[in-house]
Fold:
Amino acid sequence: MNRIKTAIVGASGYTGMELLRLLLVHPNVEIVAATSRQEVGKTLAAVFPRFCKAAGAELAFIEPDPDAIAASGAQVAFLALPHGVAADIARALLERGIKVIDLSADFRLRDAAVYQEFYDHPHPAPDLLDEAVYGLPEVRGPQIQAARLIAAPGCYPTSILLPLLPLLRENLLELNTIVANSMSGVSGAGRKADLSLLFCECNESARAYGVPKHRHLSEIEQELSHSAGEKVTISFIPHLIPVNSGIVTTTTATLRDGVPPAAIGAALDQAYADSAFVRLLGRGGCADTKNVTRTNFIDIGWQYDPRTHRVILMSAEDNLGKGAGGQAVQCFNLLFGLSPIAGLQNF
Amino acid sequence: MNRIKTAIVGASGYTGMELLRLLLVHPNVEIVAATSRQEVGKTLAAVFPRFCKAAGAELAFIEPDPDAIAASGAQVAFLALPHGVAADIARALLERGIKVIDLSADFRLRDAAVYQEFYDHPHPAPDLLDEAVYGLPEVRGPQIQAARLIAAPGCYPTSILLPLLPLLRENLLELNTIVANSMSGVSGAGRKADLSLLFCECNESARAYGVPKHRHLSEIEQELSHSAGEKVTISFIPHLIPVNSGIVTTTTATLRDGVPPAAIGAALDQAYADSAFVRLLGRGGCADTKNVTRTNFIDIGWQYDPRTHRVILMSAEDNLGKGAGGQAVQCFNLLFGLSPIAGLQNF
Amino acid sequence: MNRIKTAIVGASGYTGMELLRLLLVHPNVEIVAATSRQEVGKTLAAVFPRFCKAAGAELAFIEPDPDAIAASGAQVAFLALPHGVAADIARALLERGIKVIDLSADFRLRDAAVYQEFYDHPHPAPDLLDEAVYGLPEVRGPQIQAARLIAAPGCYPTSILLPLLPLLRENLLELNTIVANSMSGVSGAGRKADLSLLFCECNESARAYGVPKHRHLSEIEQELSHSAGEKVTISFIPHLIPVNSGIVTTTTATLRDGVPPAAIGAALDQAYADSAFVRLLGRGGCADTKNVTRTNFIDIGWQYDPRTHRVILMSAEDNLGKGAGGQAVQCFNLLFGLSPIAGLQNF
Amino acid sequence: MNRIKTAIVGASGYTGMELLRLLLVHPNVEIVAATSRQEVGKTLAAVFPRFCKAAGAELAFIEPDPDAIAASGAQVAFLALPHGVAADIARALLERGIKVIDLSADFRLRDAAVYQEFYDHPHPAPDLLDEAVYGLPEVRGPQIQAARLIAAPGCYPTSILLPLLPLLRENLLELNTIVANSMSGVSGAGRKADLSLLFCECNESARAYGVPKHRHLSEIEQELSHSAGEKVTISFIPHLIPVNSGIVTTTTATLRDGVPPAAIGAALDQAYADSAFVRLLGRGGCADTKNVTRTNFIDIGWQYDPRTHRVILMSAEDNLGKGAGGQAVQCFNLLFGLSPIAGLQNF
Structure:
């Protein structure tokens, strides 16, 4: 089988680890470069003992140097870097003819001013924003296939957008009534030595954080507005809960007058009947993170409350899977014309 | 010190265990009877090894027989029984001159028809509803002091009502915009042999359940409506998360036109400045369950989002503490004229 | 690809679930039958929502009827049944020409009297014991390849035997000094509605159990004695810890006089240098369950303490993986001449 | 009530937090000083929101300056500092007439050479070693009452020594056969920003560490030797498991020839019949951390295996409780002639 030469830039965090986990055994991938400033010279297996005995895990980490990456023969690079850092290396790789799937926030927004508002610094590469494709395969499949630069969505946005977008496209909701509450596993906060992420600080704990204006709101509202055809502003409250990975999101919104509840299920069915990775649980289905961890699935159930005329959307995904690494691989499969499920058949 | 002779009826579940934990070392309490059909004849210490060497833990469980409880000399009984079962024994104890603090749902609602709607069976003692006092000490202190029959609130309602009631009394909110999302530890589901409550089913899992019409909605809306002076209908979505105990609730609502955000903080300050067990975290304070577990505190923070004109209320309590056993003891202290914090000084 | 028609008997517990997880995506397997008395008529995906959208997950559970299993065309059956129950159906399937990989304890012991001593009932099929092969592929590869009836080892025994056997074969240890302490995830106790397995009973808890004569001792000592060439009796203390899956075992033993510590590493290297699933961590390597969960690997490290002249063996595996389902699939691969790692390439 | 003016030096780690938790509500204590270099100027309640509304929690952290501590009027100081750091401040406080209960390792060993061997630096105050009393109240009650400088034992040692010492005193064991395996909650590793202590690194993980010569071995063997009347050398293997707190220890040893198993129970009974904090579970009792967390109890059960002639001792304590803060308070109660259980009546 012809394998695509692939680089992973910034591979020592949790997202990088998930990309390695998926790509080391992806039938169409050969990992030719993995970078990490802190781990230069160590093998993948040494840094992540879980990967010991995987074919390819004896590769050594290198510096995130674009020339070295290009010299590895990489045709495509996944970037698992902090926002603000990803843009420069993305440009350098593109200039060297390497396609880029960026998992940071740097290319998710169409508007550099919104980026500055939410990320507190000027956009590092505004000229590339027009070209970048927001990598939600269920929504932008054709554009992803043709892209050079893909911006994989954030974990929270994926869990909020996939249930909502079909309802907005069908104009089923009162747009100013949308409230999304998400609960995320601790890996979503990254692999960094920080007191607040210690086991004893997170275990037996649950709390909201980042209210009222979490950075992911920017891309959520951009995509909702795009589907609705008008500006949408929502409330989004993220919470941290003591699981390694997994996001469950509950979104409520008022149905427009006269919309029958069955229209909710119909809109979801129509949008995702042929989807490989969206699993519809139907009315009353309560999505559970335990069914999606370590997969690329998102489970979506819904309920309708006639007392309040609100729809309740319940979605679950793995924040590292469909919320990050899995979705990036799904984009990769599209980009290279592979089977949609190549390398993503884990249960 | 003069100790009040106290019975605990239904003491082998998690709420019963919490009551025992608190009352065994309460300076003004002598436990004279503890009942459990399954554990008759065993000592408290045998059923709950944690209590071994506590003074009083050598007491043996008896049948939940009103005459036997009366014969123990009990002046007051805590009932930690399922709804539908509590009412009969409550009546029998009242007839024998024993005050009752009921932790079931049987006496929380003023309207037997609402009980039937939410609990799917006729109310077992509608004639007692007028007399029963909803045992939220921050709201009904004087009535609790004078009561014979106290209905301790549910765990979810406590976490939703305490932040909301002051805002409703001050008429700050658009009443039809209230959405409450709660996350609860697994002890809230009770101590029963059920596949869905196994460690491996709950660990590394998070999900909504009981939508759209959880039973606790009935008392939540009753109390909100009472404070608002008109009928209030809300959305309430409970979730199960993998912690032993603790509830964190996030409630959103739109401010009425012209209400300044500072009015939120002012309403909370005014309501709870002198409260022994409500801790106000102020604007931006994100309540965390880890700070309240095994205590009778509820922590309340809030935030305002000018983009949506919504207030975000964030509260945390222990579902077994302020949400059940602790609050019942707080009522007990009021009922017997004790220090508000007697037996509740745990950190 | 020619797929082997495969049945899973008793597929609704945790071991059955793990077998399904592995076999649904095994490239050489077609699942033609799955049985569960409680779930007859439901699909695999309905009982285990995690498997929804897996090819084959729409298969419906049937009764564990040997004729029905034979009618499915099954060439081989995995049995994930309780001990005492497995033997009868194993015999019936063998009579119908179906090979059997039994994950119960029924065929692990060579001596029916030992079975009765440890399992408290007469062996249900003593005539089959001679034929059954103890399915530890690192030790009995050729016999497994030729077998009709394979007895997959217990989870604890696997974690204890693989580090110890090479040392016994080389005669490095004082045989009467072996002490094994194991810590197991809760899935090892099975998927049954039992108060002691509730989330709140297991979370934030750790304890020994089953001392001094856990049932797995019987097969551990049988295999140790076989390798040592004389009767070996050990101490084995299992513990339950709050993880879903994973076993870590620490085994101590005194080196025979004159044996140099380096002989330990040499014996392990020689035994497992070519092994696909044993990963040697070397001297000082502390095996961690988090590196092996959901894989078929066992990680083995060791240390030597000159103060006590003891070797310390530290092994980690997934109790459902290398300790049960993964190892059974490893046997299956041997039995059908497949690649050793077919269907087991998960990280 | 006359309250003893008390200082806590190094109060921002997990042990310091536990000391605060106990001492803030101890009926005979007034906390007059709490130190933390990092948190100077913040109140106890600000650093630990759990303590908000506790009387005394508005005290502000100060620098660990002996003169400032003396100026606070402190009669006694608890030191929760790293080893090597504690000795200097202990000396300075003693010189100012303040009694010291040190929870570090600095004064646990009688022999400065052993300290250097295990802690890799010269002992910082060898002249004080003679005076220091090893603060195991069940063993050295009278000396503790009369001490000026108490060295509270380590968490692992407490869980190993209390079950073993009575057996050594009675000469029941073959001394060279003792093997102790301990599993500890993550708080035992301290409150420090370290990748290996992140939630995602510890959750769903179990592993040994620190073999073969953990620092606590030094005091364990010192105390065992003292009781045995001859040099005792043991194997000790600590493990990390995903719970916040709690240690369970399993110790095995061979009975001396001719010793009847009943002698084990008799020795334990005789040693601890009158003990306030040792709970004997008897033969077959498997100690569980969940029964002792947040208490000062140690639960001890035992079993005898006639096949190997080994005794199995199973003990459980809270590493922060009986293993650290609780035990230090127990020493404090002795030192000041208070009720043994003052401030330690939590369940």
